[in-house]
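Query form — protein Response regulator

QUESTION: What is the three-dimensional structure of this chain?
INPUT:
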Amino acid sequence: MKKKVLTVDDSRTMREMVSFTLRGAGFDVVEAIDGQQALVVLASHKVDLILADLNMPNMDGITLIRQVRASGGHRTVPILMLTTESDDAKKQEGRAAGATGWIVKPFNPEKLIQVVQKVMG
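ANSWER: The structure tokens for Response regulator are given below.
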């Protein structure tokens, strides 16, 4: 059975690039445009990994991580931040919220796949 990844980004282009990359590597992908929509998607999908942007309208990536970690069903799912932010303070805030890892945009497709496979075990 294919592993399922939820990609969360307010940029349609970025969602499409990430989804294309992951599908090409054999993953099943579901998409959300922000943290609020991601929570709706998570209510009806079991996912093996969440790949989320940091800066999004309605609900940012850090808030999404906190919500996921506080809820039941997806509490232990790995969450990778995929963002233009490379500031150490932001990375620390992400880790404190429960992020599994941090990837800075623009991303290298091969490295993205390697990291995704590594954190999913």
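ADDITIONAL NOTE: Helices lie at 12-24, 35-44, 61-70, 88-97, 109-120.
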